[in-house]
Amino acid sequence: AAAYTLAGVLVDLYMPEAAIQEYQRVINDYPKYENAYYGLAAVYYKLSDYTGAAETLQNVIRLLPNIIVGRTNVGFVYIAQRRFREAVKVLSEAIRTDPAAAEAYQFLGCAYFRLGEKKRALEAFQSAVHLQSQNAESRYFLGFVSMSLGKRDRAIEQFKALEGLDSVLAKKLYLIIYQDKVINVDQARRSP
Question: What Rg value do the Cα atoms of the chain yield, rounded?
Fold first, then answer.
C-alpha cells in the first residue's frame, strides 16, 4: 500500500518514470490489486503511450475478467488510438458482463460514431442516458448525434436537460442545434 501511495505522489510531482517503477513494484507484489494497474495505465496514457496503457489494462482483464472498469478503460484507450472496431468489441463485452455499465455505453457510442454508424451510436447514447440521466457528457453526445441524424427535436430535449447539468456543454449543443440561425459577425458587417 505504501508503494501505491508513493506512486500516486510521484504522479502528482510529475515524475512519470519513477511512478511507473513504483506501480510495477506494487503489481509484482500484489498482482490482483487492480488500482495499481489503473494507476500505471493512467501514467502511460498521460505520456501518450497508448500501447502501454492498453497492455496494462488488458492484464487487468486477464487477471480479473469480471471487472468492468478494465474493459471500459481499454475501450477508451482504443478510441484514443483510433482502433474503433476493437473498442466496439471490448465495450460490447463490458456491457454483456454488466448491462448497467453506463460509461461503457457512452464510449461505445463514441466508437460507433467514429465508425460512421450513427444509428448505433444513437442507441448506445440513449442507453447511457437511460442508465445515468444526470451524465452531462452522454446527454451532449446524444444531442449531437441526434442533430447529425436530423432529429432536431431530440437534440433540443437534450439541450434542455443539459442546461441544469453543465452550462458549457449546453452552450456547445445550442450552437450545434441553432448553427443555421447564428449570424456570422463578419458576414453581418459585409451585408448592406
Answer: 20
